[in-house]
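for ur thesis appendix - GNAT family N-acetyltransferase. copy paste whatever u need, i formatted it the way the template wanted (i think)
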Amino acid sequence: MDIRHLSLEDFDERIALSEFAFQFKLPQDRRETELRYFRPEEHLGAFDDQGKLLSALILLPFRVWVNGTSMKMGGIAGVATWPEARRHGCVSRLLHASLTEMREQGQTISMLHPFAFPFYRKYGWEMTVERKKYELEPRHFPAKRNGPGSVERIAPNTAAVAELYAKAASRYTGTLDRTEEWWTRKRWITPGLLALYRNEAGEPEGYLHYQVENRVMTVLEWVSVTEGARSGLWDFVGNHDSMIDRLLLTVPSNDPLPFLVSDPRFKQETHPYFMSRIVDAEAFVSEYRFAPGTDESLLLRLQDAHADWNDGMFRLSLGANGKAELKRTVEDSAASVTLDIQTLTALLLGGRRPTPLAEAGRLGGDSKLVGLLERRLPRYDTFLMDFF
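the 3d part is after this line
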């Protein structure tokens, strides 16, 4: 089996594999668009001895917000295998190759949307992003406030909303730091209306990208960076009450709406959404913001069966300002914390806390060292508005 990047000559076979695996037919105009944006260096394939494509994945170069810092991230998508090649280790080989490539490209994190969580957990990815889905009737909407701001419907326009999106996205861990191409190809490709909220001074503070069809309003993206924007956009949504029976809305898992409305008995479902993986623990920690404190350190016995550069004993040194360094060490001591790469990912990217993970057996070590981690790990919320 040969693992290599695809070439332009492999485009037709790659599309055929995707159409078969994901059960769709790409229209001719979309095919031409995909060919225009086809970047062979972003596609890894497993080929047999005759050069036939067996399996493939896309390795997308992204940046993602992590606790207020924009970091390089490798997004894995489009993982597909012809049925006759399944269960022959094709995807396993591709994932291992992708980890090496991401590390070489400085992508210290990887994210993906799994077809099955257990499958990718075997390779070190862990669930980090959950989302909540609401289904409300107009009677559940918040009471109108009639604030001094205003809402204007405008044409889809990246320049009008990109700064608002970035301000909101940087408050979460796991949100994409979008490029202009991403806005054009992925956000605006979905038909919808764009409503922009401005405060009393005329400054934009929030927006809705939404659709109304068959008496259902579907919010594709809701961004509000102030309370005035949040309430103003709800007033705007409420103005549709005579023409809709339901509102569909996806929000972060910690969204406070049920607490803020008079009747919280509307449909609410929490869904596991995306998985993440720390690709290069040393490089990742050097960019990560820990909580401030005193200069202190501890030993981490880190386990990673699929990336040997993450496997072994490391010293985590935490500065008073929250900057940190993780370095491999020959030190060995029982006074250490033992965890695998999934647990480290859950702590630093998934919003999980050390004490419950220790109680669940996912993290081992002296209670004082667990307490040190509890003090120095920041509290943050996760969210992702996009799909890839």
